[in-house]
Each structure stands twice: as structure tokens, then as C-alpha cells.
Amino acid sequence: HDMGAAMLGGVGGHAGLFSNANDLGIFMQMLLKKGYYGGESYFQNYTVNQFTKCQFCKDENRRGAGFDKAVLEGQEGGPACDCSPSSKAFGHSGFTGTLVWADPDEQFVYVFLSNRIHPTSENKKLLEMDVRTKIMQVFYDAIRTVY
Questions:
Q1: pTM value?
Q2: DSSP letters spanning 107-142
Q3: Is residue 3 part of a domain?
Q4: Structural domain of residue 85, as residue ranges?
Q5: For 3, which of 18, 61, 83, 108 is 20 to 30 Å away at the CA?
């Protein structure tokens, strides 16, 4: 579904990673645990911190080295809900409307897989209805109600 990749014969380095909800959940859980999962170490703590911390906040750019971050105070937009995720939260949104998000303070992982451009790239329902962030809001509300 990526026109740039299609022009390159179907595969392009910019086109991201392809996975499923279970594996993405495991990957994000591993990052929450600073590189550990299932008793094994896959990344050093330092590496995870570099990927997930806000690298350019002083320049009002909320990006980490590997992930997006929650919207900075006074900014609008971003992939996360308006639910005040912690400053340690991080994630990635994809071209087709997908989103993975992890919040270390809440011990929360959210995986939303979608195909925003089905049946055509003119389909804007996912964006117009703000589905992924509304669902994320419900999860944050539920977590905060329990505790």
C-alpha cells in the first residue's frame, strides 16, 4: 500500500516493519523492561533510553531517536490521546493508521493495527473518527480508575 515502495518494485527501506499484534506487544513490553523479555537481554538499558527519551525537546521537537513521544505542553497533535500520558511514554504511528504505544509509568502497552487506506487511499474514516486515540483514551481511563 506504499506508493513509494511500489515504485521501487514493492520493497523499500523506508516502508517500515511488518509484524503482528502479538509480536509488537512483546517488542514494546521488552522496551518497557529496558531491553529484557522472558529472562533474556536483547538491548542494553542505555540503548533503550536513547531510543525512547525525548532527544530534541529543547527545540520543541518531541521525537526520540527511535520513537515519537507524548505531545509537549503547549503543543497540539501527536499520535497519543489527550489523556496526559507520562513524559516517559513513547510509540510509533504508521502510514496505514497503525500505532504502538508504551507508557513506563503506567506499565501500559497499546497496539492498534489497521489499514487506513482500504479500500482506497481516499478512505479517511479512521482519521476523521479519531478511532485509535479514542480507544487509547478508554484504556488510560480504565487503568487510572482501577488504581
A1: 0.84
A2: TEEEEE---TTSS-TT--HHHHHTHHHHHHHHHHHH
A3: no
A4: 16-146
A5: 61
pLDDT at 14 exceeding the cut of 80: no
CATH of the domain at 99: 3.40.710.10
Q: How far apart are CA 48 and CA 78, in angstroms?
A: 21
Number of domains into which the chain is organized: 1
Task: Decide: 26 and 33 in contact? Cβ < 8 Å.
Answer: no
Task: Answer yes or no: is 6 within a domain.
Answer: no
**SS3 call for 59:** helix
**Residue 11 forms part of a structural domain:** no
Interval 30-52 mean pLDDT: 96
Angle, alpha carbons 50-53-56 (nearest 5°): 100
